[in-house]
Design goal:
The chain has 143 residues and is α/β, with parallel strands linked by helices. It has a single domain, classed as Transcription Regulator spoIIAA, CATH 3.30.750. 31% of the residues lie in helices and 27% in strands. The strands form two sheets. Strands 1-2-3-5-7-8 form a six-stranded mixed sheet, sandwiched between helices. A hairpin with a 3-residue loop joins β1 and β2. The protein starts with 13 loop residues before the first strand and ends with a helix. The model has no long low-confidence stretch (mean pLDDT 84).
Length: 143
């Protein structure tokens, strides 16, 4: 059975649910992308849903946020989705920062490898963290 991540949507000021995630504003300058399950595979359609949710919540990218991504333990991404340059899209091109929670050494290695070889990197701070608490501390220090 696929474990479901605990999500309290009541803590969001505003949120949108996609097939794989909850995308929500949880604080004045914090936008979360939280995956619902520990096991999943992101494809191009899932990416579009997430981008559309971020676009709506950020006023088409005009409102800048710190983005916190909380993936599941065993999430994957299709080759087609991996090849898509997400940071080229307007909604992700001018945010305040992005932090991704990695729960294991393999996730950290893959995250660093994936980010290192992206052709179009974000123009804002990017960091991997082992806990939400550490990520939030970093985000608040960059406010």
């Amino acid at each position: 059975m696929k474990k479901t991540n605990t999500v309290n949507t009541d803590s969001y000021l505003e949120h949108i649910e996609t097939s794989l995630t909850y995308v929500g504003i949880s604080e004045k300058s914090l936008l979360e992308i939280r995956f619902k399950k520990d096991e999943y595979e992101v494809d191009v359609e899932d990416q579009k849903q997430i981008q559309n949710a971020v676009e709506k919540l950020t006023n088409n990218g005009k409102d800048r946020y710190h983005i916190l991504v909380i993936p599941g333990m065993f999430g994957g991404i299709t080759p087609e989705a991996r090849d898509k340059e997400m940071f080229k899209t307007g909604v992700f091109s001018d945010q305040r920062s992005i932090s991704i929670i990695v729960n294991s050494l393999p996730q950290r290695i893959l995250g660093n490898f994936y980010f290192h070889f992206k052709k179009q990197k974000p123009k804002y701070p990017f960091q991997l963290f082992s806990s939400e608490e550490m990520a939030l501390k970093w985000i608040r220090s960059n406010n």
